[in-house]
Queue: 3 jobs
Job 1
Amino acid sequence: QKEVEQNSGPLSVPEGAIASLNCTYSDRVSQSFFWYRQYSGKSPELIMSIYSNGDKEDGRFTAQLNKASQYVSLLIRDSQPSDSATYLCAAQYSSASKIIFGSGTRLSIRP
Amino acid sequence: EAGVTQFPSHSVIEKGQTVTLRCDPISGHDNLYWYRRVMGKEIKFLLHFVKESKQDESGMPNNRFLAERTGGTYSTLKVQPAELEDSGVYFCASSQGSGYIAEAFFGQGTRLTVV
């Protein structure tokens, strides 16, 4: 079993709708979680970080963490074509440990 | 403030040659990570420095890969001798050492092609 799992997609969402990206992790000791956005041929760009159960909002983005279910999600409201990219979920045990990435979900926002 | 910088951005070498990749982390960041993405695959962890010390090198593929971090500043990743399967994009990331959560920021990557 992979440590961080994501559906590879592609996930197609109409412009203006809410895109919902999901991620599960296998290691219960993971404490911090991250969402990165990666455009084709570019490096991963940090969007959100979360370590407490519940929701964390930043602009159009909301990260949700449920440690009991070992589940992390990212919601993108009012989706724009520029949101089309691969979204990477990542988990970390502590601030001084390695970060493990999922394989990413390809998101496509259709006009 | 400068972000994480990597050099070179691209490198094409022949099988059996040596290549050295360099990463300059964000100033003040104690954590430095090396990752690799092979075509179509996920980003794989290679190793993690805390300052000048190797905290975790469990992801290093074999002894052809050697990473160093001089004085806890920049880091180099040497591949010697390079093999065809070493081709991919090598990313470096850095984060601060303190705090409950350490957000890591990535460099632009080095695309290595071994022919």
Job 2
Amino acid sequence: DAKTTQPPSMDCAEGRAANLPCNHSTISGNEYVYWYRQIHSQGPQYIIHGLKNNETNEMASLIITEDRKSSTLILPHATLRDTAVYYCIVRVPGTNAGKSTFGDGTTLTVKP
Amino acid sequence: SAVISQKPSRDICQRGTSLTIQCQVDSQVTMMFWYRQQPGQSLTLIATANQGSEATYESGFVIDKFPISRPNLTFSTLTVSNMSPEDSSIYLCSIQQSGNLNIQYFGAGTRLSVL
């Protein structure tokens, strides 16, 4: 799996957009980008994934650069409940999803 | 999405004892995974539990310390044996969604403290 690099922490004002970057410069052509988050005292929660096109769902948007070497998770209107650790993972879909490497992630703190 | 129930949610145990953690899923899944999350750290995969075969352990984890059962497609247990304070962690059960999307779902975790 390609290695990812994320900033250790970020702050965001409530109601504003939170933009969380992830660098995956060694990503290979068949690897997808997945985002998860872990709210305190809970298990990780799937947010979104993509290959090369931008994706949007009810939780967030995922912007992947054209060269696919980086991506940004966007929470359009952050709330206090979005305070969590956000993990960016890169891997090939298929078996052995459990072997997804969870790095240190980004701790997002949403402030009133 | 799948619903994953873990028991117990937390426990405080004495050194040298063992604790069995249960993971129940509301649908049949082929692959289940057990993770450890030490205080302030990220997740580390302990093993993959496949129904009908022995669990596959990651480097640094052994069956004698973390025996796993997988009696059917909706249930698994992880036992933390002969515990020491260094085993104090959150233990998480996870499954892979069927199909090829590679999306994982996690239980809420078991918070273990060893005295």
Job 3
Amino acid sequence: NAGVTQTPKFQVLKTGQSMTLQCAQDMNHEYMSWYRQDPGMGLRLIHYSVGAGITDQGEVPNGYNVSRSTTEDFPLRLLSAAPSQTSVYFCASSRQGGGTEAFFGQGTRLTVV
Amino acid sequence: GQQVMQIPQYQHVQEGEDFTTYCNSSTTLSNIQWYKQRPGGHPVFLIQLVKSGEVKKQKRLTFQFGEAKKNSSLHITATQTTDVGTYFCAGRNFNKFYFGSGTKLNVKP
């Protein structure tokens, strides 16, 4: 099993550009989520989804959009990149509405210049 | 808003010494999870605690969930160099997880 797959692994954007971070899981998990990790701040929840067609905001949703058209995929869109969005982004999935073990992807290191 | 505080931020120990990290939440949690992240890696699940006062052990690791379900701790007995990494707690409130800022453990051989 591939588990949770994130692409790309690294990305450099110019301020104002948009892009989509991809996340796919092959474990048929209902719950998927996006986090950003900044030094000294742990992981902060951006958006999450409890199933296909359902998404909701986390702690730091501004500047990001998500959609969940299938169980497998949960892309994260940066609408207009800003230097403050420079971070490492992790996608995670779990069963049963998030109340079980979360499996994380390898992460995407994003730099906005 | 919801916050999960974790201390200490860093801990340097000699191999064989014990290590403890603590998490405190501003609100009651449904459950708490613990993760380990190796340098350059992604978080890996260690354990989940659900019940008030719960204690779970995994070999040299002991996890506790407070009676009020607002605090938790991870204790490692006799650390080894393989324990190096950052340990995070993650408290669940409804469908959202709130991660602590992590404790970075360095073990000197």
